[in-house]
Batch of 4 targets.
Target 1
Amino acid sequence: MKHPDLSSHAVMHKMLGDEKRLHTLRFLYEAGLCVCDLETLLDSSQPAVSQSLRKLKQTGMITSHKHDQWQIYTLNKEYAHYDQLVQILQQLPSAKEQVDEITASGLRTRCSIEITEIRFLEKS
Amino acid sequence: MKHPDLSSHAVMHKMLGDEKRLHTLRFLYEAGLCVCDLETLLDSSQPAVSQSLRKLKQTGMITSHKHDQWQIYTLNKEYAHYDQLVQILQQLPSAKEQVDEITASGLRTRCSIEITEIRFLEKS
DNA sequence: CAAGTATATAATCATTTTGTTATATAATCA
DNA sequence: TGATTATATAACAAAATGATTATATACTTG
C-alpha cells in the first residue's frame, strides 16, 4: 500500500502541537519579535525560547535577521506550507493586543525597538 | 500577561503531528473504517492501531460504533474543531484511492464489510 | 578594558510518547 | 465446546521531547 508522503505536514502540526510554540507563531503572525520580547510574552526562560525558536527555524516555518543588537524572528513567507499555516493562525484568537501591550506597558524593559518599527522593517 | 487558552487547539495539532495519526484521519475522512482495515492501510500492528485510535477518541476527534462484529471508527462531527480539522484534511492528498483499493484488492482478508456500505451507514 | 545586554548552545534530567509483547474479553463459528 | 475473529488493554522498553543549569559568544557602553 503506497502512501503519499505527509511527513512535512506532520512536522508542521507537531510544531503547532506545543502550546508555547503555537503562541509563538501567533505572536509572530502579528509582528517580528526579538527573543527578549518573546521571553516576556511567553513567560519563558531565555534558553527555552531560544531553543524553541531554533526548532521552528529548522522546519522552515520562521526566519530571523539581525536588526541592531536584536535578532528579529518572523514567519517565513518561503515556507512550503506558509498559506496553510497562516490559515490556521487566522482562526485563532488574535495576539494583536498582547503584542501591542508589551510596548505600551513598561514590560519591554530590555529590548527597546518599537513594534510598529518592526512591522515596518518586515515589509521592506 | 494573559493568554487565551489554546490548549485544545494545541492538542488537535499534536494529534495531527504524528504521521500515522495524520494518515488515519485522512482515511477516516473518506470512510468509516474498522481496526483491521486500518491495520492494512497503515501497515501497523493491531495494538498500535488500537491505541492510536483510543488517543484520537479521547481528544474527541473521532468516535466509534459497533456494526456487526466490527467497531467502526469515524470522524466525530461534534468535535469542537471539526470544521477546522476538515479544512486541514481537505488540503492533503485524498485517500480515496487507497481506501477503495483495500476492497478491490484481496487485502481485505478479514473484515468483509464493504467501504460503500460503511459510507452509507455513516450517513444514516 | 570591565560590565552589561542579547542570544546560542551543550549537558543533563524528567516526562511523555509510541511501539511491542502478552493477555483479556466478547462474539461467532465449526 | 473449542477455535477463530475483532478489539482492548496492561506492562514494559526505547525514543523523543522540553526545560533547566551552566557556559560561550558577540556587541555595546561607561
Target 2
Amino acid sequence: MAEGQTPGGGSGQALLYLTDEQLRQGIEAMFFAYRGFTADPDRILEGLSYGRAHHRAIHFIHCAPGTTVNNLLAILGVTKQSLNRVLRTLIEDGLVTSHVGRSDKRERHLTLTEAGEALEQQLSDAQRARMRDAYRKAGPEAVAGFKTVLEAMMDDDMRRAYLALREGR
Amino acid sequence: MAEGQTPGGGSGQALLYLTDEQLRQGIEAMFFAYRGFTADPDRILEGLSYGRAHHRAIHFIHCAPGTTVNNLLAILGVTKQSLNRVLRTLIEDGLVTSHVGRSDKRERHLTLTEAGEALEQQLSDAQRARMRDAYRKAGPEAVAGFKTVLEAMMDDDMRRAYLALREGR
DNA sequence: TTGGAATGTCAACAAGACTGACGTATTTTC
DNA sequence: GAAAATACGTCAGTCTTGTTGACATTCCAA
C-alpha cells in the first residue's frame, strides 16, 4: 500500500510519466473512453431487443466463422449458461446458424447468416467510424502507442487470445 | 455501408493505419484490455458485497470530496435511482457520509469516511499497479499516444468531464 | 403564496452475469 | 467393451446494476 509518489525510486526525470497522478489520469481516460467506445453499437441495439452481449457474440463469430461454443466461451470469458441465452435468441431470430461438427459430432460450429452479417456490418461500421475519427485525430505514432499500452494491460491469456485472432486473419 | 478498405481514398501509404483491419484490431484490443483493467478491483470487491458500481462511486467521490449526487450522476452516466442504491449501501456501511447542503438544502454532499478512503486506496493501488506495469513496459512515447487516442475516442461531454477532473487537481 | 423546477428517495422490474444440478451425445481411455 | 471425460444444452435460483414510475422535500420566480 501507499505506493510512493515517484515510483521510480530515484531515477527521477525519465519516470515522471509513472507518477500516481499520471496513472490516475490514465485510469479515468480508460473509463470515459470505453463509454464512448460502446455508445454507438449500444444505440443501434437499443431498438432491437439485443444488448452488448449479443454484439460481442456476433463480433467474434464474424471474425472466426465456424468457431465452436467452447471457443467463444474462452474468448468472451462468460459462463456457457450466459452465452447460451444469447446464442439461443440469435439462432431463433435467424442471425446465427449452428452446425454439428463433422469430425467431432459433440461440437457445434457457429456461423453468421446473411442477416447476421448485415447486422454485424451495421454495428461494426458504427464502431469503426468512431475509431477511425479518433485514429485520424491522433495520428499514426499515437495509434502505435495506444496499441502497445493496451496490449501490455491485458491478462496473459487474453493477450494470447488477442494475438491468435490477429494471426488467424 | 461497406466502407472502403483504404479509407484515405487515394493518399495511400500514410493512411495505412486507418484500414478496416487496423481498426478492428484496435476494437479488440480495447475489449481485452478493458477486461484486464477491471480485473484487479473486481477481485478485491468480490469478497465484500460490492461491485464495479461501488468502485466507480468511491473513485469519483475520492477525487472530488463534497461533490453532490447530481454531479456524480453526470460523471457516471447512470440514473439517480441506480446511483442511489449504491450510495445507500456505502452510507449504511460507513464508507461514505452524506451532508445536507448549507446554501441549498436539497443537495447532499458526499465524502469518504476514513474506512472509505482505506478501501479506495486498496482498490486504486491494485489498479494503478497494473497500469504502472503496462506503462513501464510500453514506455513514455507509447503512453502519450495511448492518452491521445483515448481522449479522441470520448464523447464531447465526457471529454469535458475528464478534462475538468484533471484541472481540478 | 402558489406553482413549477430541481434534488433526492422508495418500489418494482429487466438484462445479463453467476452458481449448481442434471441430461444427452460423443469421444477417449483403460 | 465399460468407464471416464468432453461438448453442449437446459432448468432453477441468485446477484449486480441498469431502467421507469411515483413521491417527498426544497428552492425560486411569477
Target 3
Amino acid sequence: MNKQPLINFIQNNIQNIKVSEEAVLTISEMFEEREFAKNDFLLKAGKVSGYFFLVDGFMRAFTFDNEGNEVTTYFYTKNRVVFEPASFFMHQPSTENIQAVTLCKGYYTTFDKVNTLFHSVPEFREFGRLMLVREFVAYKQQTLAMINKSAEERYADLMNTNKEIFQYAQLKHIASFLGMTDTSMSRIRKEMLKK
Amino acid sequence: MNKQPLINFIQNNIQNIKVSEEAVLTISEMFEEREFAKNDFLLKAGKVSGYFFLVDGFMRAFTFDNEGNEVTTYFYTKNRVVFEPASFFMHQPSTENIQAVTLCKGYYTTFDKVNTLFHSVPEFREFGRLMLVREFVAYKQQTLAMINKSAEERYADLMNTNKEIFQYAQLKHIASFLGMTDTSMSRIRKEMLKK
DNA sequence: AAATTCACTTGCCAAATGGCAAGAAATCAA
DNA sequence: TTGATTTCTTGCCATTTGGCAAGTGAATTT
C-alpha cells in the first residue's frame, strides 16, 4: 500500500519542519486507502464527517435550503483535504453531504485517529491546523466575493480562478454555488459568449 | 490585575478538562488587559492580527470591495475571541479592519505568545482549536443563509438570531453585512413595520 | 444655541435576477 | 441504436433590488 502521495502532501504543507521517519510511519498507519465511485457519498447529512485526503478526482458538498432546494456549498479538487469542519471537530451530525462527482481516490481516516495523531505527532498537529485555517481562508474569500459582486462578476471570477470546476461540475450545481438560478447563469453564459 | 473572566472563559470552553493552576498562571501571564475607546482599531488592514478576548463591548470587522465600498464582514459581541484567522495564523497582513463600535474591554495577546501557549499548554491548544472551529462554523452558517435567501429573509433572520447587533451597529453597516444597500434595507424595515 | 455633519428614509425610475414552461441538447440505459 | 431521462437554454413577464437625489431628523462640534 503506497502512501507516498499522502506523506508528500503533509511534508509539503508544514513549513520549516521535516517530518521524521517515525512520524511518517505513525501517520501512514492511521490512514486507509479508499476509493469512491462516481456519485458515491463521502459524507451523508446526519453522519459525522471523516477526514479524506483526495489524491485524485473531484467532489462536491451540498445541502438544502428552507425551501428544499439543493445548494452546492463547495467543490473539492485533487490534492486537498476534504472534510466538514463543523461536523468533524464538534463530532456533530453534518448538515452537508459530500459526494464524488467523478471516480475519487485518496486516503481516509476518522476523528478518533486524527485526534490520536494530534496528540502524538506534533507535525501532524501543525498540519491539521494549517488545513483548517486554509479551509477557513478559502471559504472567507469565496463568500466575500458573494457580497457586493453581481451574478455576472461572480461567474467570471470563478471562471478565472477555478477553471477546473467547469471541467467536472454540472452547471446547475455551479449556479447554486454562485448563489443564482441555473436560468440566470445560462443567460449570463450567453451574454459572455458575445464578447 | 484580575484575569478571572479570561480564565473562566477558557475553562468553560474546554470540554472535560480542568485547567490546572499552573496552566492558569502561564496563560494569564501571556495576556494583557486592554481597552479600546469607541472607534479605536483593534486591527488595521495591512497589519497582522492579534488575539483579543472581548470581555465587554461591541466590535465590527470591515473591508473594501473592488469599487471602494466599505463592506462589514463581521460583528463581535462580548465573551468572544476577536481575531482574523487568515492573518493571525498565516502571519500575513490583514485585508480586514476591526474597530471598536463601543468602548471595549478585554485581554490582548500576540501570535508569538499564543504559539508559545499552544506548545506549552495542551489545554490552551484545545481552546485555540475550539475558537477557530467555532469561528468557522459561525461564519459558514451566516454565509449559507446569504445564499438562496432574499434580502428580506436575511434581515429577518438576523433580527431573530442576533438582536443585540441592532442595539449597537449602524444600519448601513448591518446592510452591507447582509449584502444589500442601506436604501434597500430601509425599505425592508418600512415593509416589516406594517406587519 | 446655532451650525455642521452624519445617519436614515423616501420617491422615482432603471437594472438585475427569478419563475415558469417549452424546447433543444446531451447523457444514460437497455 | 433507440428510447428515456436529465441537463441546459430560451422567451416572456414578474419581482426584487439598486442608484440617485432630495429631504428629515438626530447627533456632534464650536
Target 4
Amino acid sequence: MAATGGASRPATAKGAARREAIVAAAARLVATEGPDGTSHRAVAAAAGVPLAATTYYFRSLDDLLVAAVERAADDELGPVTELVAALPRRRTSADRVAGIVLDVVLGPDRLEDADLQAHYERFLAGGRHPALRPVLRQTRRRVDALLTEALDRCGHAGADTAQLVAVLDGTVISALVEGDGRARVRARAAVAALLESDSSA
Amino acid sequence: MAATGGASRPATAKGAARREAIVAAAARLVATEGPDGTSHRAVAAAAGVPLAATTYYFRSLDDLLVAAVERAADDELGPVTELVAALPRRRTSADRVAGIVLDVVLGPDRLEDADLQAHYERFLAGGRHPALRPVLRQTRRRVDALLTEALDRCGHAGADTAQLVAVLDGTVISALVEGDGRARVRARAAVAALLESDSSA
DNA sequence: CAGAAACTGGTACGGCCGTACCAATCGAGG
DNA sequence: CCTCGATTGGTACGGCCGTACCAGTTTCTG
C-alpha cells in the first residue's frame, strides 16, 4: 500500500500525477455538477482512470470531496487574486464596483444559472459533509479579504463586506428559483443598490 | 387504474386519505431531511404504507416531490399568516421587527441549523427539479406579501422586502458553513442592522 | 348480485452507489 | 538480476434507488 498510516500520499512521480489528475477532474465536477454529482465513478471517468484509482488515492469519497473543493477554490481564487491586484486605485462608480464584487465573490466566469447553482450547492454541502466545513470557511475568509482589498481600491473602504456578500448570495438564490437565467444580472443590481444606499448614508 | 388520463387522483375516501398520509409524510421529510432524502421508500416508511402506494398515487417521484413541497409550504405559511394577522399595528423597534421577519421568512419553529439547512436545500432543489420552480416561486411571493404586511403593521412600510430577504438568506447560508448552530441568531442580527440603517436613511 | 373499477401489497428488474479485494505489472534499491 | 513495495485495473458485494408488474382484495355501480 502506498498509504502509510492510513492516508494516501503517492510515493512516485507517476502516482502523484495520477492523484493530481483525479483531484483536478473532481474539482471540475464539483464546479459544474455540484457535490452530489461527484461520485467515484464520475470522477474516474472524467479523469480517464479506472474506478479503483479513486479509492486507492483517497480513503473515502469524503476525503476526495474535500480535496476537490479545496482545489476548486484554489482554481477560482487564483485569477480573482490577480484581478484584484490589477485593480486601479481610484474611486469607482457603484455600478462598476458591483460588477467587481460579483467577479470576486462568484468568480468572473460563473455566468450561467447552472454554474451558480453548483456554486451554492457546494456551500450547502457543508451541512451534510462536516469535513467540508473547514475548507469552506477558509474559502469564505479568503474571498472576504479579497473583497475588502477590492473595495478599498475602489474608494469604498469600510463597506460591510459581510452584508454585501449576504445580499449577493441571497439574491442569487432567489433568482435561481425564478429559473430565467438572470441570476447574475439580478445580483449585480442588488449589490449596486446596496452600495449606493451605503454611500448616501 | 385510479389514474384517469395519467394523473393519480383518488376516487374513494380511503384512497384520498391514503394519498393525504403520503403527502403529509413527504412534506415532513422534505422539511427535515431535505429533498434528497425524500425517496419513495423513505416516504412509504414514514407514512406507514407499502412502497407501491407511493407510485400508485403519484406518477413519478418528481410529482410526489411537488406535492410535498406544496404541502410543506402550506403547513408553514398557515401559522405564519395567523402570526402576522395578530400583529398589533404600532411602531416597533428594529430588533423586535427583525425577530418577526425571521418568523415570517423562516417560520417560527425552524430554530436548528439542520432545519435551516433543509429549508435552503429545498430552494436549491428547484435547479435540479424544474417542476418545483412554480410552487417555489409561488411560496416566495406569498412570503413576500406576508412580510410586506408585517412590516407595514410594525411601522416599517416601504422597506425593501427583497433586500431584507436576500440579506437574511445570505446570512443564514454563510452561517451554516460555520456550523456552530448560530445561523438564526446571526441572521436576526443582520436583519436588524439592515432595518436600522434603512430607517436612519 | 354481478361486474368493473379502485386499490393493495409483495416482488422484481436494472441502475448507480461506496467500498473491498486481488492478481498482475511496474520501477527503484539491494 | 531480483525482490519488494507502489501501483494498476478488473471485478464483485451489498445497498438504495425509481419504477414496473400483477395477483389478490375491496368498493362502488348498474
